[in-house]
Amino acid sequence: MSITLTGTIERKAIGMGAWALVADDGKTYEIYQASPKEMLKNGLKVEVKGEVREDVMSFAMIGPILEVKSFQAIDS
Hints:
By secondary structure, this protein is mainly β. It is 0% helix and 51% strand. Strands 1-2-3-5-4 form a 5-stranded mixed β-barrel.
């Protein structure tokens, strides 16, 4: 399922750590490891286009897993 979201990148201190997108609506998505590394900056406000992956699992279990296909930083 392809989606477009706006939100903030956060580093979650769960186990070895996990990156998340906390969407403006409050929902948390775990960022899939194959997503662009340039966006992994704690506190970065972004608009992302991606796909929710139903075929992968994680240890963090902080929300649906989001594979980001593209992103754009947003001025806050």
